[in-house]
Amino acid sequence: MILHGYWRSTTSYRVRIALNLKQCSYEQRTHDL
User: Fold this and answer.
1) Is the pTM of this model over 0.90?
2) Where are the domains of the chain?
3) Any idea what the Cα angle at residue 5 is, between residues 10 and 20, rounded to 5°?
4) pLDDT tens digit string along 1-33?
């Protein structure tokens, strides 16, 4: 799974927490908005 996000985004932060709690692997790609 590829997670696209912005480093200051609270939404992507919450998604990362949920994925880590469920122990799902993902690749993070950050974008400068």
Assistant:
1) no
2) 1-33
3) 70
4) 999 999 899 999 999 999 999 999 999 999 988
